Amino acid sequence: MADDRSGIIELAKYPVLVFSIVVALIIAKFALGLEFGMITEVSTDGLKFSEKSNKATLSALTEIEAKLNDLSVRIEALETDGGNKSAAAISNAQAEAFTASQSVSDATANIAQLNTQVPGNEASTLKGWIWIGNYDGGWTKSSIAELGTGQPLSIDPTSMQPGTEYRVLGNMVARDGLPPNTKEYYRARTSLGIVPRGSVVTLLAEPESVDREFALQYWANIEFKNH
Fold first, then answer.
1. pTM for this structure?
2. Taking CA atoms, which of 21, 28, 167, 223 is between 20 and 30 Å from 2?
């Protein structure tokens, strides 16, 4: 009994964020049908999950935050001016909500890195699709930067050649394929992991566009080596 009480006291010292994540995962399991694995360690570094179900756990956590980010922006847009918006304002709100859903917080990215580091491996490689920005004669909300200048994209997407390296500007969610232009859109694709802010990625093919009416969005098939 004394040992149990001591353990509870020790856990109480850890950041509230850790416990918030646990609660969110439990809600996701029963409300959203998302699966996650056994938590094997809770510490000041974050959470560690069992290796067997690690991938499913991180995917669930990523999807939770993506949905919350999207919802948060939409609610804020509705509250502004009582929800009375022009067509242009509605389109902008949709674009903002989408942008928010394609990246996660540093806390979630750190947890992902903590759980994907495998002892004995020098690096793990992730190949997937990330959203890189909207283009209409020029880039808006670009999520990657040119490696040489460190500045957001400035070249035409058709000029982006396979093998070129870029630096990501946010903790980008990588998915298992180009999202279909349907109501589900990116939700129809499984999360493969997170490419941390500042990481260098290699373009595997010319970016492809998806016309979402409110924006012409470009996705890129990339490779990321997590050292």
1. 0.70
2. 21
